[in-house]
Structure formats: structure tokens, C-alpha cells
Write a structure and sequence with these properties.
The chain is mainly α. The protein contains three helices and four strands, in the order ββββααα. The mean pLDDT is about 85. The protein binds zinc ion (2 copies).
């Protein structure tokens, strides 16, 4: 790949905004990516702003995955607790239900963790070369 502005020079990377090849003279290094000098610095900054905002949203969503399991566990405990006062067989039905809730709460909890654990951001930027 060669610089978009200087076809004789090899590109060191691509602009994060317009994906054109850039040589050291044409690129502005913004730490988190390259931008066309005097042209796309602002839009690349905005792109990175959006990405970091999304990362924050993901972190918040990660927290909320605990609410479901916690609620299920609470329901499970309530139903299981009602078993303490069970005198008739029919009163054991909520207990069965409660153990179901409890198991389900653990399943969703560990599912949620596995899901978020595997969602690492993949890096695939300006590694293309001729
Ligand atoms: Zn650009
Ligand atoms: Zn150039």
C-alpha cells in the first residue's frame, strides 16, 4: 500500500476516517489511530469518542446482567423459605419452583459472565499491506 497523496511513498497506516493510505508526512498520529494531516483529525477524534462511549455502555450493560440473576435468586429464596412452613404436600410445590429459580439464577449468572468474558474487542485496523 502506498500513500494516497504520494504514490511513490509507502504508507505507514490508514486514516481511521477515510481509510486512505498515509505516509509519515501526511499522517497525524492521534495515539489511538492515524488521521489525514490537517483534514480528518477532528473526525477521527469523534470516531474514538463514539467508540469509548460505546465501551462505557457495554460496561453498564455488564453490571445490569447481575440484576436478573439476583432477582431470580431472591425469588428462589422466598419460595424455598416457604418450604420451612410446609405441612401439606401441596406446599412443597413452591419449593420446587424456588429451587428452579435458584438454579436458573446461577445459569443466567454464569452465562452472562461467559458471554461478556468472550467479548473482547477485536483489533483489525490498518494492518493491510501490499
Ligand atoms: Zn482521512
Ligand atoms: Zn504522503
Amino acid at each position: 500500500m502506498h500513500c494516497f497523496n504520494h504514490p511513490d511513498k509507502p504508507a505507514i497506516g490508514i486514516c481511521k476516517s477515510c481509510s486512505k493510505g498515509l505516509c509519515p508526512d501526511c499522517a497525524t498520529d492521534l495515539d489511538y489511530g492515524l488521521a489525514c494531516k490537517n483534514k480528518h483529525e477532528e473526525s477521527v477524534k469523534n470516531i474514538n469518542l463514539i467508540i469509548s462511549k460505546n465501551a462505557r455502555i457495554f460496561r453498564t450493560a455488564r453490571k445490569s446482567t447481575l440484576i436478573g440473576p439476583a432477582f431470580l435468586l431472591f425469588m428462589g429464596m422466598v419460595f424455598l423459605g416457604s418450604g420451612l412452613f410446609a405441612t401439606e404436600w401441596i406446599q412443597w410445590i413452591p419449593v420446587l419452583l424456588g429451587s428452579g429459580f435458584t438454579v436458573f439464577s446461577f445459569v443466567t449468572f454464569f452465562n452472562g459472565r461467559a458471554m461478556w468474558g468472550s467479548k473482547k474487542p477485536k483489533k483489525h485496523h490498518h494492518e493491510r499491506d501490499e
